[in-house]
Design brief:
The complex is a heterodimer of chains A (about 425) and B (about 250).
Chain A lengths: L1 H36 L10 H14 L3 H13 L7 E3 L1 H4 L10 E2 L2 E6 L2 E7 L4 H4 L7 E5 L2 E2 H9 L6 H11 L1 E2 L4 E7 L5 E7 L6 E5 L2 E6 L1 E6 L2 E6 L5 H13 L6 E5 L9 H7 L8 E7 L4 E6 L10 E5 L6 H11 L3 E5 L9 E5 L5 E5 L2 E4 L14 E2 L4 H5 L4 H18 L2
Parallel strand pairs in A: 13-14, 14-17, 17-18, 18-22
Antiparallel strand pairs in A: 1-20, 2-7, 3-4, 4-5, 5-6, 5-8, 8-9, 10-11, 12-13, 15-16, 15-21, 19-20
Chain B lengths: L1 H17 L6 H11 L3 H6 L2 E10 L4 E10 L3 E8 L3 E8 L2 E6 L3 E4 L2 H11 L7 H4 L2 E10 L2 E9 L6 E6 L5 E10 L2 E15 L2 E11 L2 E12 L12 H12 L1
The chains are: A alpha+beta (about 425), B alpha+beta (about 250).
Amino acid sequence: MSRRLILLFAAALASFAQASQLDLDSFEKVWTTIRDKHWQVKPGGLDWQAIHDEYRPRIEKAASRDEARAITQEMLGRLKQSHFAIIPAAIYSVLDQDEGGPGVAGIDARVLDGEAVVTSVDPGSSAEKQGVRPGWTIQRAGGKELKAIIGQARSNPAVHELQLTRAVLARLSGPIGGTLDAAFLDGSGNTVTLKLELTAPRGTLSAFGNLPPQRVWYETRTLGSTAYVRFNLFLDLPRIMARFQQTVNDCKSCDGLVIDLRGNPGGIGGMAMGMAGFLVKQPNQRLGTMYMRDTTLNFVVNPRADVFSAPVAILVDGCSASTSEIFAGGLQDLGRARVFGTPTAAAALPSAFERLPNGDGFQYAVANYVSEGGQPLEGLGVTPDVEVKLTRAALLAGHDPVLDAAVDWIKTESLRRKTP
Amino acid sequence: MNRRMSLVLLWGAVSGFAADPLPSAESVLDRYVQVTGGKQAYENRKTEISHGTLEYPAIGVKGAITRWAAEPDKYYASLEIQGLGNVEMGVNGGVAWENSAILGPRVKTGAERAEAIREGNMNSTLHWRKLYPKVENAGIETIDGEECYKIVMTPDQGQPIVGYYQKKTGLQVKITTVSTTQMGDIPVELIASDYKDFGGILEPAKVTQKAGPQEFTVTLDRVEVNPAIPPERFELPAEVRKLVDQAAAK
């Protein structure tokens, strides 16, 4: 008995010792990667060796993996740049799932005036069948008051709209096949309590390299003589590029095209160039420039043989990030698109993911990106030409003021072009 | 002062006397042809289909590469990467092109076109005199503990290539150059290793390419020697042909 206890104790000690060494190795991997691969020889303008000497002793003294991870994350924070993050192993391995789980309630939401508001409801979802409508306020989900969560998150100025929205949407998720108790405030001011079924998110599961598999969807429709396209990620490249090409080809006689990138966090940066090739006729144009340590890359646009020449409107919000910003900012700078909505997430840096020795994921940026007009997208984002905010009142009235503004502009612009 | 000058002169004379004279660049490049199979082996090769794999470990991407080539200067290559789709490129009749799901079709011009046409040369190792009018031996550098001749090869158009050839074996183990691409000039370092006999010619079975912070490895798995390749294999894809015709119409 006592021998067994000793063995167990020894095993626990060995496990602890191993975890510490793995955390040290992980710290070294993170620090070395930034030293060797950051686009600046002095990452973030810092003395990177001094940073190592400051943080290494703290990692050595860390009592747990959580503490070691927090210290490493703090070190990354010194860069003051996005796309540098430690993703805990448990989350990294299931990143295709939201915090609550992979099942979703079929509701998209944004934080408007400090409250979580439904912006769209998936057709056929349990939420739609039970009458949830855009504009409803989500008061509680899974027993948690969302307003309190939003208030708490907003108390930290570093929390951006993108993170805030993700935190809200995570509360609307759970295991597939499970249910979610949610309370809404409807358009008449009544509280509606519902039990929503959680299902797999819409879209096709798509894998790319070390990125966790993610569901990608693409939708298109016509609004009068204007084509409208929306997709949730710049991923699943062959399928999404083919669909976009099809949309453009089907739209040869349209008054214009609306590309809705609200909520699109980005993906494969090159897709911005490829899609722009369907919209930009002039050769030798570029969306912007990416700066790496040894290389400068121009994000060039290859005009396709059949280019769409009617007006293009792009819709963005604070959850439009990375490739969405490269695409929207570049076409805005080239004068090829008019951008509607609210400022983007200002998180455009291209990044890679690697698995650390302790199993955590490590995201790091390998370049800086400046849009064609000279605007560094990191930290500044894309400022819309026409700033239009979603409001709960408009959503309840069945309107999308951002989309409405874009369609109105396309009508006017199309008429102007047709007028001799 | 006189004494110091004498020492400098003496040192220079001694070191000059002691060092082996550098072989000419021409002899180093000819030796590479010889040690990898000889002139006849290259001349016997009229067509080939190479099969390999590409691995980009930093982002966990793998792909399959197949390259069809025919004398004197035609090639078509296909790279299939999961999640990125197919990337095709080729050279035929002086047209260098590329077509991918991500960027669409395009025709290469200028230095990029010249570089692609050199790459399209079926037996570029043998034909270095034609491809690089100026070659020079820039000295000796040690790579992985082995002394190598550093040969600078300058083409008529485009950036010079620096090849490193082991003094002991004559094999090329490294290339550095600045690759001209549509997105800009990219410094490239290629590390060649694991030479194997593919149908009578020694070729590096593993080439690691470093371009900026990116590093990927191409492994050559198999080479079909002198297979029958139908001419249409090298024809321009319809989308590329359309761009060529549009440019000609202007």
